[in-house]
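So, can you check this one?
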Amino acid sequence: MRPGVGPGPRGLVGTPAPLPAAEIPVFQLSLDYSFNDWHPKPVQHHYDLARELAPLREQGVLVVGSGNIVHNLWPASTGTWTPAPNPWAVEFDERVRQCLVSGNHRDLVAFESLGPSASLAVPTLDHYLPMVYALALQEAGEPVTFVHEGMENASIS
């Protein structure tokens, strides 16, 4: 299988397709975020593991974390979906943004400390962890760039 090309029409989920004429290899890491469904590995485990990938950056490897800060589809399944962003989603998204800009990795790893909106915004770790992997590779003083800002479907950012 060529990098970025999966068996389906859209490729493998979460794998970015290579840019046209780009000479950047693309491969996907699988995140083992749970040793069983009821006891996920702590976010600190993933942050520490990602820090071990730092030599890849030194070799010029581009590391991309694709996921969501807020990802809760429960409102859609309960019939409480609204076109306007949920206040808890906006609140958590802004708190995470502030931590990212200020380089506050500690609170992002312990995201539950960011307030009651955290448990609604991150009901499972599968969409949050990719950001943690990219975050762990941020060097001191390195600026953060946001490719997309805003809310989709009331509870996805």
